[in-house]
Design brief:
Largest interface: A-B, 59 and 48 residues
Shape of chain A: globular
Low-confidence stretches of chain A: none
Structural class of chain B: mainly alpha
Radius of gyration of chain A: 22 Å
Order of helices and strands of chain A: HHHHHHHEEHHHHHHH
Strand order of the largest sheet of chain A: 1-2
Low-confidence stretches of chain B: none
Number of helices of chain B: 16
Oligomer: heterodimer
Distance between the termini of chain B: 40 Å
Number of strands of chain A: 2
Largest sheet of chain B: 2 strands, antiparallel
Structural class of chain A: mainly alpha
Distance between the termini of chain A: 45 Å
Strand order of the largest sheet of chain B: 1-2
């Protein structure tokens, strides 16, 4: 008698285990990798495991995460945005020039920079959609325009300085929060934008249209998607995120001629670590955000291991190749 | 009506005319603009000066050689972002291994060429066997080489012997060796693309990998070989750069922005990023456009930052001038 009840029980158990296993298999690899990286970091540096450590990590990582989410919009639509880094550069050195230490001008400067961001995205999108210039070339041209323009504007060396109220966003914490104590403003902005961009990407028509355009622009156009408009919106979102990232980075790191240099490649790297597929058609905002956090976590880890900076580049190279190869091999198996 | 009146001979000319890559018209426009600016601001002293003209050509050599390789990978619908660091790697290894000793030159060349083949092979294998997008694959290998170089060398290391510097400075008759080198690379590239089976295969695979595969081409091998060719041109560029500088340092490649500029000149030259179309002569014109702009701007004393701005605008406008009529969707 005992055996007759045992059989269905063990069957039920295996079916539950199978359910769990299929669920586990669906978890994007970026999350376990993120957890492992954070675990190792916290083992090496006990300070990291404290609330203070986590919040300061969040403050440091927020600009890249915001940037990567913006980059995803363009990547998912089938393009690249290489102008992000130079837009960050322009944002920090331009803001310093406008503000010149006068806190009253911080608001104006942020407005101007966001306006420039929208313009840059609009031009990128226009050049790609209407002039049919491949985005790699269009945004490379924009990179040179912004880099040269920023330096020309300031005369080759950063002038002026940022006011404290401008730097508030990237540098400060909101104090006196129950339980956790304090929380970085940058982290708050990141989470807020993360929610907005996730909803926009995953729950609205726009998100579906972006993915459709990235997957097959011709098919998207034939099924009534306004391909040009969708592309332009994607570039505007990417550029605005770059400006916001620039405001946070300026607050966190200050003004320099090299600010933002190479950030476009970092944001593409973060996006592919988060499972975004280049040339479009696939991607998830939360996964990409965690891709950025993972990349920052790995950078912290290499720091803790005492690896000199050059080797961090090499490790980043290995990781992005590995991440993309993993995604490719997994999708090949599924086919 | 006019076509009826045309003799066969005239038709041949029209056809030949139509086969000129559009970029040459752009090169003519830029050159004319350069001449006008020259006349207005420098009384014609810039472009009538033979040493300045030679300088335009020499400035174009390093970029031109690597751009030929970039053209190969881009015809195959791939891309190589690691060329700048391969150039640095070549420069550093060359001066390190040669140590100014002429007897070590042959051995060094053999080793560095071997390293170049290896870099191309690895790029090609990652792209074809691991299915990694070429942009990420070569960005990654570029970062790995960069990390190795910056981690191991912090300054100029070693030197190349004077006999090796001949590549950069000596002339055969009135023509600098470096320009002959560039011409040789362009002609070999043209020959491979237009007259060999491999060239036809590369255009086929670049046009459509699927059709290439179905018609029996070993697509992976075709792509891998194109990456080896591209790395070898980077090595050759690196030899030229180090022969001019006398010694190698990790930053010589990225400082020349050879990665993005070789891509830009190739696209300006009419090679499609999506593959299957283009050629080395178009790329050469793209390189000369950059050379003319650089030289005229330099001689006129235009602010370097403004120069960067204009360069960005010219890249976009040049590509837009013939892409905007196309039916294809850009991405």
């Amino acid at each position: 008698m005992a055996t007759s009840t045992d059989v269905p029980n063990s069957q039920r158990l295996t079916s539950i285990l199978e359910d769990i296993w299929t669920w586990v298999k669906k978890v994007p690899p970026v999350y376990p990798v993120f957890i492992v990286v954070l675990f190792i970091v916290s083992q090496l540096n006990p300070n990291f495991a404290t609330i203070n450590g986590v919040t300061s990590f969040l403050r440091r990582s927020s600009p890249l995460a915001i940037l990567a989410m913006g980059q995803l919009y363009v990547l998912a639509s089938g393009g690249f945005d290489l102008s992000q880094g130079s837009l960050i550069n322009l944002t920090t050195i331009g803001s310093a020039l406008i503000i010149y230490g006068n806190p009253e001008d911080a608001f104006i400067s942020i407005t101007v920079m966001l306006g420039i961001g929208i313009m840059v995205g609009l031009v990128n999108g226009f050049v790609v959609s209407y002039l049919k210039v491949p985005s790699l070339i269009a945004t490379l041209g924009m990179l040179l325009l912004l880099k040269g323009g920023g330096l020309y504007w300031t005369g080759g060396a950063p002038k002026g300085y940022l006011s404290d109220n401008f730097r508030f966003f990237g540098r400060n914490y909101i104090e006196n929060i129950p339980v956790i104590g304090r929380f970085p403003v940058a982290g708050l902005i990141f989470i807020l934008l993360g929610v907005i961009l996730s909803v926009l990407f995953h729950k609205t028509n726009l998100g579906k249209q972006i993915l459709a355009v990235g997957d097959n622009p011709k098919a998207a156009r034939l099924s009534g998607v306004k391909v040009k408009k969708v592309r332009i919106i994607a570039f505007i979102i990417s550029a605005v995120m770059a400006v916001i990232g620039g405001i946070l980075l300026g607050g966190f790191g200050g003004v320099s001629i090299e600010a933002g240099e190479g950030m476009e490649m970092l944001s593409v790297s973060a996006a592919v670590i988060g499972g975004a597929v280049l040339l479009g058609g696939k991607g998830s905002v939360p996964n990409v955000a965690f891709g950025a956090l993972t990349l920052e976590g790995i950078i912290s880890l290499l720091n803790l291991l005492g690896l000199p900076k050059p080797y961090r580049d090499a490790v980043q190279g290995v990781i992005i190749i590995g991440a993309v190869a993993y995604t490719a091999i997994r999708s090949r198996k599924r086919d | 009506m006019t076509t009826e009146v045309m003799s066969n001979d005239e038709k041949k000319w029209v056809k030949a005319f139509q086969r000129i890559p559009q970029v040459y018209y752009f090169l003519v426009i830029i050159t004319v603009l350069g001449v006008v600016l020259d006349q207005i601001f420098a009384r014609g002293n810039i472009l009538s000066n033979p040493s300045i003209l030679t300088n335009i050509l020499i400035r174009s050599v390093a970029l031109g050689i690597v751009a030929v390789g970039q053209t190969f990978v881009m015809i195959g619908a791939s891309i190589d972002l690691s060329v700048a660091y391969t150039i640095s790697l070549t420069a550093v290894l060359s001066s390190l291994l040669m140590q100014g000793d002429p007897s070590r030159v042959p051995m060094t060349i053999a080793i560095v060429v071997g390293v170049g083949v290896l870099v191309g092979l690895i790029n090609g294998l990652i792209i074809t066997k691991l299915d990694v997008n070429a942009f990420i694959a070569t960005l990654g290998t570029g970062l790995i080489i960069k990390g190795f170089l910056n981690g191991s060398f912090t300054n100029w290391s070693g030197s190349v012997p004077e006999s090796f510097q001949a590549i950069g400075y000596e002339k055969i008759g009135p023509i600098p060796i470096s320009i002959l080198l560039l011409l040789a690379v362009v002609i070999i590239g043209w020959f491979i693309l237009s007259w060999t089976k491999y060239g036809a295969h590369l255009y086929g695979v670049g046009g459509s990998k699927e059709i290439g595969r179905l018609s029996g081409l070993r697509t992976s091998r075709v792509i891998i070989i194109s990456h080896i060719i591209c790395s070898l041109t980077s090595v050759l560029s690196g030899f030229f750069v180090v022969s001019r500088l006398g010694s190698g340092a990790p930053w010589v490649g990225p400082d020349g922005i050879y990665d993005l500029e070789s891509i830009a000149t190739t696209v300006i030259g009419g090679t499609a990023l999506s593959g299957g179309r283009g050629g080395v002569f178009g790329t050469l014109a793209g390189v000369f456009i950059f050379g003319v702009i650089d030289t005229v701007f330099n001689q006129l004393g235009i602010d370097t930052f403004l120069k960067t701005v204009l360069r960005g605008a010219i890249i976009i406008l040049a590509v837009a001038s013939y892409s905007f009529r196309s039916e294809r969707e850009a991405a």
